[in-house]
Specification:
mainly alpha; two-stranded parallel sheet; 6 helices
Amino acid sequence: VEALAPLLESRELPKVMHDCREDSAALYHQHGVRLREVFDTQAAKLVLDRLASRPPRQASIQELLRDQLGKEEPPDFAQVKDRMAEDAELWARRPLPAALMRYALYGVDGLLPLR
């Protein structure tokens, strides 16, 4: 995290995240890093809902990717989600299994186009 701190705190380098509240809090409280210049896709969705007079609702990254970009979730993700619900330590083990890497990359790959 120390090596990334200058990038995460930079006002000149935009970051795109989905629901960055917990990440931001963890970075600050655990490492003293203050996220700056973040475009939060979930917050943007809430603003767009309000402007369109729709009831606000927190959308998952998968919902946004499907609704905004037509990107469907791969079928094996249901199994990954089941494993995540059953195992709180799943993401802490290294090396990460290929299925978890694909799951993580799926959401990250769609963030910039959502901006």
